[in-house]
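Work package 3, deliverable 3.1, input record:
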Amino acid sequence: MNSYSDKMKKSEDIYQLLKKLNSVGWKSIRESSINRIMYLAAVLYSFRYPNEDNILQSQYRFSVTLSGPEDAEIENALINLQSNDVIKQTEEGYQICPGAEFALTEQFNDKKQQWFDDIAYIIAIYGEDKIYDFIFRDPEYRETLQGNSVYNLNIGCDNATVKFLNTFKDAFEEKIQTKEDALDNRQYLELYFEYVFGKILRGEK
Amino acid sequence: MQFTYEDVSKIVKASKDTTENNRNYQLLYKRFLKRMWEEQPNHQVMFCLAISPEDVDALKFEDLEDKLKIVVSSLGEANYLKIDNEGNIVETKYIEGDTSEVKKRLSELSARDYLFFFGEQDITKFINGAAVDENNIFYSRSDRMKYREKKDISKINEVMDNYTRQHVTKQVNYMVFFADSPTLYRIDPNLKQRNILRNKPEHYMRDQLCDYLTDNMKYTFTTEPELGQSKRELDIYFDVSGELYFIEVKWLGVSLNDSGNGLSTSYTDARARDGVTQTLEYIEELMNTSEKSLRHGYLAIFDARDNKSNIDFQEYRFVRKELETYLPYFSVLKVIPLEKRHPA
């Protein structure tokens, strides 16, 4: 993908994500939070949709910085959106300009639409002040920190977070009475976030 | 990762419940109403918020936070407020009686609407005529209450004050920084009476401060080994709503040397001034590279000098001109005096 096309697709993703967050009452968001939420969307995708290609994997590449996961092109996409008056920067972060729109195609990818809905819902429950706490405890993020090579985070289907989520799901399903009591992967994701939130409350790493 | 049969059974039951699966209901409760409760300065003022199931399904969240502030300001006249799907107040009343009488009345009212009773300890949900227990297996009410008592960034000086006066003054906490008596005795028996630090005490200082901040503040505090960055070993990093903060740790006094057979250089307040320069240089570096989210850098100074005088920061006159721009993003935390009160 060439860098112009990459920047435009990321611009569209960020705009759609900001719209979803607006609809759950979140008016503005910082650049570091946008990077972190996109990373979570990418790293969790293969657990949510295990039999499909990760629609974010070909587009995003996250490396570890002091602020957490970052895709260098997200900054360019934000500049692009800002210079086209789609978003503006405030004290609290980026906001969609009133009445602004950004669309590359007639219809934003359905799968992404649904996935961003799910992610926005989960993150909105806990708030911007907790995103870093979730990232810090993310299995893929922690494993990459302990590695010695360049800090590129694995968002493929075999990443450490997906592996942990499958262990989490198996541990749950070991104790169900019938197969009908099994949850769907979206519900497992929400449960996993509750589990990590418990650790955050107790200050556990 | 292990679940018990009981936990799984609770979760399975909840997964079949309509309100548990109602995203709007869950967002309203967990994102908006819980925060509303937490922001109440006085939980003695108890009240109830009601909303119809139809309005929950049609909820508009965009301006809900602002509308709920209006609800809070209306509490003088009513203790029962019903809102619509945009958060506008559509009905108010005053329910008489003590808490148990009020809760009985609320059970009746919740046959029709979803109710949220903002009580002294927490919010109680009323659904279909009954109060609903908070049913979370991953954390308890006590976990949530302890977390609420943790301080936010506006109280960092208060937290450091407590660390300085209450935590690091206990022998069990300060002894980890000091050299042990047998080693001191071998070098010179008179050293036992002095505040001689162990060799390279800075990692212990950083780790103890990091643990204390984790226990007392709402954030995740991390240090270099956990971050995997080969940058700066003596910094503590934390994030506040997407903005990066760090604390650089320095000490004054004298420690054992690397061989353990003598003393190191004695570090005086000149080192504190060097610490200021180094922290400002780091802020400059971070702000001019990819760390645009840097908000503030702090300097924490552990003072183990035998004769502690006020550290002379010379009103920062020694700071180079090009670093002065970064002074607004920098501060020195309250100095932490270390005193070996119980030479063993």
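Chain B touches chain A through 52 residues (CB under 8 Å).
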